[in-house]
Amino acid sequence: MRALVTGGTGFIGANVVRALLERKYRVRVLARPGTDRRNLDGLGVEWAEGDVRDLASVRNAVSGCSHVFHVAALYALWTRPRRRVYEVNVEGTRHVLQAAWAMGVERVVVTSSVAALGLHEDGRPADEMVPATSATLIGDYKRSKFLAQELALAFAQRGLPVVIVNPSFPVGPYDRKPTPTGQVIVGFLNRRLPAYVDTGMNVVAVEDVALGHILAAEKGRPGEVYILGGENLSMREFLGLLSEVSGRPAPRVRLPAAPLIPLSHLNAAWSTVTGTVPRLTPDTARMAYHRMFYDPSKAVRDLGLPQTSAREALRRAVAWFEENGYVNRRPSRRGGERAPDQD
Fold first, then answer.
1. How many Cα neighbours within 13 Å face the side chain of 288?
2. Contact criterion met (CB below 8 Å) for 116 and 149
3. ∠ CA(147), CA(149), CA(151), 5° rounding?
4. Which of 38, 174, 271, 316 is the most buried (most CB within 10 A)?
5. Model-level pTM?
6. Angle, helix 206-219 to helix 310-323, in steps of 10 degrees
7. Are 170 and 204 in contact (CB under 8 A)?
8. pLDDT by residue (tens digit) across 228-277?
9. How far is 253 from 336, CA to CA, in rounded Å?
10. Which CATH architecture has domain 2-172+204-230+293-308?
11. Phi then psi for 284, rounded to 5 degrees?
C-alpha cells in the first residue's frame, strides 16, 4: 500500500512517516520546495513537491495512493498575515479532501486538533461530543482547525471514507521548530521559565499519536472523531515531571492569569511594530484561563491507542532537545553544568 503524508517533514508528520514505514507502507511525502527535510533524513520515502494550497500539486501527490494522511497544518498562535493560517489549515484541507474524492482513495485520515473541540466549564476532561463554542475557539489557529474539521465531516457525509483524529498536546522527538508546547520545554531546559500560570493540558507521547493515525486508518469508522490523548496535567505537575526527568529545578512562582491579558496586548503591539513574534500573545493569555483536559478513552477502546506515561514522553522529548542542540547547558550528575553535544 502507498500512503501519502502531507506535513511529513514536521513534528507529528515525521513520526507518522516512521510508523507507516514500520508497518511496511510505501510512503510518499508532499513537501514544499526548500522545506527543511532533516526530520526524514535517511528514510526511504518518495518525495512529491508541492503545497497544500495548490490543488494541482495535491492531486498529483494523491495520485496512485491508497491512503492519505493529511497532517500538514500551520500550528502557530501568532501568524501575520492572519489569512495565511486559514489558507493552509482550511483551504489546504479542502484541497486534500477534493483530491482524495476525485482519486477514489481507500481511506483518508485528517489530523485535526483538540483545539477544534469544546471544554467543560468545570474542568472535567472533555470528550469528542463536547461542542466547541465561541469561548473555547480562541484565536485564528483554533478557529481554522474547527473549520477544517467541519469540512472533513461534510466530506464524510458525502461518502468520502475520512476519519478525523484530534491530538492533544504531543511531546517527543522531531519537534524541530519547535511547537508551542515544545517551546515551553525548551524554555524550561534553558532556565528561561522563572514563573508559571497554573493552567492545564493533556500530554501525549508523539509516538502514540503517530500510531493512532494508522490505527484510525485501519480501525476507525468514517465520519468519526477520535481524541489522541494521554495524561491530564496541571502546569505545576507538567513542570514537576520536567524537573524530575531533566534534573533542573521547577519554577516556584505562580502567576495569576488576569494580569497577562493587558501585558499580552502590549507585547503584541510591540511585535507588530518590530515584526517579531511575541512571547506572550492575547490568545495564549486567554487560554491560560482554561484547563484543557481531554478524555481519550474512545480512541483507547475503539482503536487500541497506547498510553505511554507523560513522564516517559517528557523524558524522550528532553533527550531529543538535548541531543539536537536546543539546550544551552545542562547539569551534570554532580550538580555542575556541561555544554551539550552539538549537531
1. 19
2. yes
3. 75
4. 174
5. 0.89
6. 120
7. yes
8. 999 999 999 999 999 999 999 999 988 755 555 555 545 555 556 566 66
9. 24
10. 3-Layer(aba) Sandwich (3.40)
11. -65, -35
